[in-house]
Amino acid sequence: MTYDLFIGDRLFSSWSMRGWLMLEKFDLPYRSHMIGLYSGTMAEDMSALAPARLVPALRLPDGMVVGESLAMAETLAERHPETGLWPTDPAARATARWLCAEMVAGFTALRGECPMQLKHCWQGFDPSPETLADLNRIETLWAHARAVSGAESGPLFGYYSLADVFYTPVAARIIGYGLPVSDANRAYCVELLADTPVRQWRAMGLTLTYDPFPYALDLPSLPWPIGEPSDARPVEDGPSVNAKCPYSGKPVTHFLELDGQRWGFCNAFCRDKTVADPGAWPKFTAMVSAVNDS
Ligand SMILES: N[C@@H](CCC(=O)N[C@@H](CS)C(=O)NCC(=O)O)C(=O)O
């Protein structure tokens, strides 16, 4: 049983990120398929999924297609009640549904003014009063969720649920545009973004380069605040310390250099996602530690 998930460019497609987290965070089996959001091929790429026309879209193992993130979430929760996609407590579950529905329907100023991008932390961004009102509303909803669940920090309902999935791209906007929220809510945002799957999503997004960069601002930017600074860089040749790719076990063909050592991978994508954030990949870090700590 495997789901097919259709997504757009990872650095920018906030809804795709939600769709992916629904599967990845809850250990549901899936294959990802990229749709050309910026390449001009979107309509053609989506044609087999009609009438779905936006990403994400989900194809169920029986071939049925579901569009719209909230419908995907409900479908997965119904099919996998054991996974805890929604909180188990009825009051928490109702509140989580409310937060997700309001995310889908609302915050148009924030969404329009601060498109999700996972590369820059813009400095000196000046949000409009409408965006500040959206942020205020989001903080009110998060406080309400915590009052219902009793969770003072961490996931909104005490353990990771669809509510955290739906607000992860909001966290990326708060951090990426330096938007004003309470210290506690900033810490929650950083925690969401520091989660290994989110780091992996971002690292995969960084394998693509954009010229011009979508949604660029004429502002200085700081490095993304999550993940260790690393001097990893792609290199043309080996030999590498390892003969087999840490991800697939296949012979290595693509190489990176990190801290004076060369490491190999079986394709450019896996090499480049590792260059983007080496610490986000447990199979890579375990391989490096096994060699260097022995
Ligand atoms: N309401 C939809 C929104 C999906 C959406 O807007 N996706 C964007 C990418 S983040 C998209 O497909 N944009 C392409 C377009 O508008 O043509 C959902 O909840 O899934």
Please describe the structure with a list of short key phrases separated by commas or semicolons.
294 residues; alpha+beta; Glutaredoxin; Glutathione S-transferase Yfyf (Class Pi), Chain A, domain 2; 4-stranded mixed sheet; 3-stranded antiparallel sheet; 11 helices; 9 strands; binds glutathione
Describe the structure.
- The chain is of the alpha+beta class.
- It has 3 domains: 3-83, Glutaredoxin (3-Layer(aba) Sandwich), CATH 3.40.30.10; 90-200, Glutathione S-transferase Yfyf (Class Pi), Chain A, domain 2, CATH 1.20.1050; 229-292, no CATH class.
- 43% of the residues lie in helices and 11% in strands.
- It is built from 11 helices and 9 strands.
- α1 (14-24) packs across α7, α4 (90-105) packs across α7 and α7 (162-176) packs across α8.
- The model has no long low-confidence stretch (mean pLDDT 97).
- It binds glutathione.
- Glutathione binds next to α1 and α3.
Furnish the topology, listing elements before pairings.
Elements: E1 3-7, H1 14-24, E2 30-34, H2 42-46, E3 57-59, E4 65-67, H3 69-79, H4 90-105, H5 108-113, E5 121-122, H6 129-149, H7 162-176, H8 183-194, H9 196-205, E6 221-222, E7 233-235, E8 254-258, E9 261-265, H10 268-276, H11 282-292
Parallel strand pairs: 1-2
Antiparallel strand pairs: 1-3, 3-4, 5-6, 7-8, 8-9
Helix pairs in contact: 1-3, 1-7, 4-6, 4-7, 7-8, 9-10
Bound molecules: glutathione.
Residues 8, 13-16, 54-56, 68-70, 104 line the site of glutathione.
Percentage of residues assigned to helices: 40-55%
How is the main sheet built? Answer: 4 strands, mixed
> What ions, cofactors and ligands are bound?
glutathione
Number of helices: 11
Which stretches are poorly predicted, pLDDT < 50 over at least 5 residues? none
The first-to-last residue Cα distance is: 40 Å
Strand content: 5-15%
- Any idea of the CATH class of the largest domain? Mainly Alpha
Label the CATH architecture of the largest domain: Up-down Bundle
How much is the radius of gyration in Å?
Answer: 20 Å
Decide which structural class fits the backbone: alpha+beta
Q: Multimeric state of these chains?
A: single chain
